[in-house]
UniProtKB/TrEMBL annotation:
InterPro entries: LysR-type_TF_proteobact-type, LysR_HTH_N, LysR_subst-bd, WH-like_DNA-bd_sf, WH_DNA-bd_sf. GO terms for molecular function: DNA-binding transcription factor activity; sequence-specific DNA binding. Pfam families: HTH_1, LysR_substrate. This is Transcriptional regulator, LysR family. It comes from Pseudomonas batumici.
């Protein structure tokens, strides 16, 4: 039995919650996954997993063994990178998750630059606005906007994303163009709410160095960035949205910027990854590249 391979299989089962998912992820036969786990349990003399027809979970011994496996495998990867060409030319699969808008509008258009620089790295990029569980979903790195809420992850700040307040021409023709915060009385907003936490977001403006929150009436609430933008384009009210998401609509006149002298606060964007991935060469070069493109003029994060 290849113990390191068995450990990799075991950690993927724990992270993905099933034998079949682990086999698909590692691209090995499902029967091989089952055999390896049985051999590993026999070698250790303990049961590592509870198996039912619906789910797989760790025993107490399995949970403790999983934590050690994660650290050992991370150490092995880093050691191999130090003493091989992989340090200069990392290889393998890198799994990344990011908001759909950032992926579609910012990262993927310049991604050929990264893959040309690191041709031995295969990328799996998930695009969604819902947070993922990095360990359970087997993700190496995520991009997230806002303040980092998970202290168990390493967070590397990338950029402060500029936001703008927008409305459709039809809405402004109907409701009037506000030129001050006092003019917002009688206006409407599109409300954004988190489908995960249920938190609802109003509007925020900077005035004389102070942040002022304004909660306007709304006729429509949405839980996705694309839906939020579509509601604005349909004339449901004011929105506050990252500049990169509406740059083309502003240029074409499909949307109009409102209250430019009172901009919304910037949105912190960070790359986040589990501590055991901190020394991974693949994660390190990808995050370094993200820092590079985020601070590059003309990427859309800033005007």
């Amino acid at each position: 039995m290849d113990r390191f391979n068995a450990m990799r299989v075991f950690t993927r089962i724990v992270e993905l919650g099933g034998f079949a998912k682990a086999a698909d992820s590692l691209q090995v036969p499902r029967a091989s996954v089952t055999v390896l786990v049985k051999q590993l349990e026999a070698h250790l003399g303990v049961q590592l997993l509870h198996r039912t027809t619906r789910q797989v979970s760790t025993t107490l011994d399995g949970a403790a063994y999983y934590q050690r496996c994660v650290q050992l495998l991370a150490d092995l990867e880093e050691t191999e990178a130090v003493f091989s060409a992989a340090r200069q030319n990392p290889r393998g699969t890198l799994r990344v998750d990011m908001p759909a808008g950032i992926g579609r509008l910012i990262v993927i258009p310049v991604l050929p630059e990264f893959t040309e620089r690191y041709p031995l790295i295969d990328l799996e990029i998930g695009l969604n606005d819902r947070p993922v569980d990095l360990i359970r979903d087997g993700v190496d790195c995520v991009l997230r906007g806002g303040q980092a809420l998970d202290d168990s992850l390493v967070a590397r700040p990338l950029v402060l994303v500029e936001q703008v307040t927008c409305a459709s021409p039809a809405y402004l023709e109907r409701m009037g163009m506000p030129t001050s915060l006092a003019d917002l009385e009688g206006h409407l907003m599109v409300e954004y709410f988190s489908s995960v936490t249920g938190k609802r977001f109003g509007l925020e403006f900077q005035q004389a160095g102070q942040l002022q929150a304004i909660d306007l009436p709304k006729r429509l609430s949405v839980s996705s960035a694309d839906g939020y933008l579509a509601a604005c384009e349909a004339g449901y009210g004011l929105v506050q949205i990252p500049y990169y998401h509406v740059v083309e609509q502003l240029r074409s006149g499909q949307l109009c910027e409102v209250l430019r002298d009172h901009p919304p606060p910037g949105l912190p964007l960070s790359a986040m990854y589990p501590p055991h991935r901190q020394m991974s060469a693949r994660v390190r070069v990808f995050v370094d590249w993200l820092v590079e493109i985020c601070t590059r003029p003309g990427t859309g994060f800033r005007r």
